[in-house]
Amino acid sequence: MLIKKTPGIPYSEITPEPLYRDRREFIRLAAAAAVGTAAAIRGETIEAQGSLPVIPNVRKSPLSTTEPQSTYKDFTTYNNYYEFGTGKDEPAVQAKSLKPRPWKLTIEGHVAKPGTFDVDEFIKSYTLEERIYRHRCVETWSAVVPWIGIPLADVIKRVEPTSMAKFVEFVTLYDPKQMPGVRSPILEWPYIEGLRLDEAKNPLAILAVGLYGQILPNQNGAPIRLVAPWKYGFKGGKSLVKIRFVDAQPRNTWQIQAPREYGFYANVNPTVDHPRWSQARERRLGEFLPRKTLMFNGYTDQVASLYTGLDLRKNF
Question: Which of 24, 74, 239, 269 has the CB geometry, 3.0–4.6 Å to 173, for a possible disulfide?
Fold first, then answer.
């Protein structure tokens, strides 16, 4: 069912209900559980089912998890991408209007080497890595995804931030012709996200350009997007057009829209409940039974030191 949104609508009516409240998804998972869970237990390799170009010469990363992967179909047909609709199934249909080539990416702000780059030439200038990451939505669903990407730290080193750079702001495409969702005032457009500079330099942070061996599908953020696997998924700005190095903390889109529910850091902290549901448990795509949510999505060893002395109940 489509719900018309108007300016000033309460935040409680904007974010879709969590997965466990979604009856249709509950039924779908129940039907798929016998097949999907059995395959996961057997540890079968899940092959890409898409028809997009394969990305060659990708290096495997030791940062990858060994957990069974979610299926390509599940992760590319159940998405949050409000530029193409608020329903989980809408982006896979509506995002066909996006034209991810040609594409320009601008890097600007407090850097010694700013520039605007053709995205394909930009990608070719780096060694790509496949990283199988746990991926956690701010709602109650999660996935394990084989991303292909560029270590964000490599990009940062290339552009040489000045001493003024304290944060990195990520700006996504705003184009009403290609993105029907932005014609609605449901959010403040364009979609903006941000990281502290030291977070952006963490080895886990990547600019993803593919998944499951292929280039990114439109609905998953083609042609280039942010992935920070220890944070909730809304931090991962899709279809990036600008990366800005700034001296003040950016106001990210969901923090502007619903500050009581979404903070700047968006670290996975299961001890802090969302105002409308618990974060203590999650349900992985393709599985029926929920599982315990891990602190920092299971990446405590890699990122906890970034937040020493920071109260992650207040700075959520």
Answer: 239
| 3-state SS record for 104-132 | EEEEEECECCCEEEEHHHHHHCCCCEEEE
Instruction: Show the tokens assigned to 69.
Output: 């992967």
Distance CA 55, CA 76 (A): 17
Parent domain of 95: 14-307
Average pLDDT for 119-132: 98
Write down the mean pLDDT value for the chain: 88
Examine residue 286 and state whether it is found in any structural domain, yes or no.
yes
Question: Is 41 part of a structural domain of the chain?
Answer: yes
Residue 315 is assigned to a structural domain of this protein: no
The conformation of residue 222, written as its DSSP 8-state character, comes to T
Cis preceding linkage at 223, omega within 30: yes
Residue 192 burial (CB count, 10 A): 21
Find the mean pLDDT for residues 280-302: 96
Closest CA to 36 of 292, 305, 294, 289: 289
Q: Whole-angstrom Cα distance, residue 274 to residue 4?
A: 24
Q: Kindly report, residue by residue over 6-39, the tens digit of the pLDDT.
A: 444 444 444 444 433 444 444 444 444 333 333 3
Structural domain contains residue 4: no
Q: What is the pLDDT of residue 139?
A: 87
